[in-house]
Amino acid sequence: MNLLLFGITLLVAGGSAALLARRSSWLGAGSAVLGCAAGLIGAVRALAAGASESWRLAWEIPGGSFAVELDALSAFFLIPILGLSALAAIYGVGYLDSWRGKKALGPVWFFTNTLIASMAMVVIARNGLLFLVAWEVMALASFFLVGFEHEKPAVREAAWVYFVAGHFGTAFLIVFFLLLGREAGSLDFEGFDRVAPAMSAPLFLMALVGFGTKAGFMPLHVWLPDAHPAAPSHVSALMSGVMIKTGIYGLVRALTFLGAPPPWWGWTLIGVGLVSGVLGVLFALAQHDLKRLLAYHSVENIGIIALGAGVGVLGQAAGSPALAFFGWAGALLHVVNHALFKGLLFLGAGSVLHATGTREMDHLGGLLKRMPVTGVTFLIGAAAISGLPPLNGFVSEFLILLGAFSGACSKSASTAVPVLVTIGGLALISGLAAACFTKAFGVVFLGEPRGEHAHHAHEAGLAMRIPMVLLAAACFAVGLLAPAVLRFMAPAVKQVSGVDFAGSPSSRPAIAWGAAAFLTVVGGLALVRRRLLAGRTVGETVTWDCGYARPGPRMQYTSSSFAQPLTDLFATFLRTRRTQSPPSGYFPRNASYATETPDVCREGLFRNAFLGGAWVLGKLGWLQQGRVHLYVLYIALTLLALLMWSLR
Amino acid sequence: MRWGIQAALGMLLAPLLLGVITRTKAFFAGRCGAPLLQPYYDLAKLLGKGAVYSRTTSWVFRAGPVVGLAAMLMALAFMPAGGAVSPFAFAGDMLFVAGLLGLTRFFTILAALDTGSAFEGMGASREAQFSALAEPALLLGLAVLAKQSGELSLSGVMQGISASSWGVVGPELVLVSAALLIVFLTENARIPVDDPNTHLELTMIHEVMVLDHGGPDFAFILYGSAIKLWILGTLLVGLLVPVRTGNAWIDGGAFAGGMLALSVTTGVIESTMARLRLVRVPHLLVGAIALSTLALILVLR
């Protein structure tokens, strides 16, 4: 606890000092790394010990108290938050280097450090007001980071959308905490578990919307696909890898207040997870901007986490320990896994952007030869996010599916039907994710360069490569050491699910040795191949072109053409816009084809809602005269009305 | 021990299934056809060759066949063969096998994209589409079997399904078998989804993806796909020919007969059907998902 608070203090102090040192990154990044390391040691020790530590200071704000606690759940969320933040800070030093002298870097580090510190505060706060303050600081710090390149209109718009969406969610959270506080008599978390059963349903929905906006559940995800690409890449990695997980943390924490969950909470979470997961990955497939594609995959992975949480809640409601344990263990492990591989992928996308100056996948290609380290680590991240063995993504999806399979073996239909949806949904999601990441990796890193941008690409600097290599190694480590990881996180799973599955079942070590055995077989076969080819002629030539004499890089499949069969199949959801002028005549000259897939929820739902709101409020425009004495009259009238109401 | 012999036989006999299919097709076409052992001759020839690589390709192209074959050999370790229980079985190994199938596909697609060829990109794109739809059908089908047998490992499932299960939940098992047969044909690049024989790149899926591979790499790919045929065949035969007497000779014989019959059936399907138009293939796969879902609803009721 002390180490953690020291780390947070260091982060804030270093960030403030960085404001003064406007040019250099070292002060901000150094304090971020040291602060995160100190906090990380504290969190790991707390989770390993399994005991909780609390600390409280009086605070003069009414209802507020500076109450913090480090229990298993908080420690569990702190580990990915602080771990990824430290790596992102190292990466940021290299990434921001090209802006040195052009932009003031001090504020970036101030806001980055503030963001990290506020995320840590969110997960340890034990008072409603303190939580909301930390939540708001987190939203504001990330808002300013999204607006880093504020001279671009698209970036400004993305930042504003994020600002509005964030506060839409916060509005629900304020009501959520006020209602809880009214029930408990204090805004401290300690009393929150005394909620009357009648209130728990509205509180659950309030938490689902409020925290879901931050987490990015469909259709509340609208800010994500704009804000993540707009931010500098190490900030995108932080926002997507861990910041949106504070939404998941909030939801999980809220569930611990609200008592025994009824089955419909599980159904709701599974429904939300299915919609977010399937639509998230479909929209990702339709994108050709690399960072936007990754942003939609965050929606997909949040959906997978919600599916796992839904299975877990269902198990709690049905009194089935296996279901509750596997669901929650899968969901929580996926939180960490997503931080690892999505952090890695965003950093990789940042290196690509840094080296080529474009995020447009259809202008790239052949980068694996030019950027070998970025390429290999991106491939590992891509395989991990597709849920393939022997990497970490497979382990968490395996746990969720195992929970669902054991749920399918149960008798009651109220458990079995949602579980069926989970199995089918998760299978479809992982199939589509594999399609999307073969597309992303294949188009960006393989084949021949499709344009000038990719020809002159160069490998990223050392500060950028080290975090990527470490994250890729962590993806392997979690896959190969799955049983140890699960044992380590058992206190957190127990706190959420109420199930302690320390000893059983037998399949957990099995996937780890399966993964290790698989890697051994790969190594063995690679040796066989090498022996076979040794001493034989190994030639090089052009790709088989079917006799066509002039094959060129422009003839390669692009990201749009690769995804076209799938996007056509799901055109009902995607509403892709096409602008085309097909070749015509005997000697066709110009032809063009462009697709754009705007967000259906944003275009169809929120745009209309906000336009409607603007229209209604516009009708009240006559109230706003611009004359001060009229406004004073409004105030006097309001006070008079309030006085009469209180005297009534 | 018993399982070990049968797994070794699987590794040895898998290419024979391809020979049987080709022979059946030749019979229907009125030709005498290639020898039954032709796939072995092909493998031996390819393993003895050097290799030619495209200058466009990177190490991913060379890693594809190695990873693919390794994943298939690994998956074979979990398959219960002819009533024998795999010593490696664990709760959820069916998900691991499905994951390994996915990994093979992932690397095959990437190796195809690595050549920078439009044809191979086309095949890769189609493979990605069809396999994304085949995955739910497979997993939902496996969920039916898990529910029916109350077991979460493939070996347990196969032990739990016996001739008497067909009397109790016959209709459900018919539905699952149909869904798994569609998955079997899709995953193994068979008609009506894909044509393993055509020489027109535009109409192929799997064959076109491996167009640039040669020598030992191509041998790995061919052998890997033979093993894949064996693995998915084992699943289907275990379901359709549930002879579980406990006698190794009877069970093993019934299993071998089932595999032979499945190869002949595949040959018959290939000879009597035309390949579906590509836009119709998703309908078939969605049909398989629907069959699996229906079966699952029936066993859950």
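qc> The beta strands of chain A are 53-58, 65-70, 538-541, 577-581, 592-596.
qc> done
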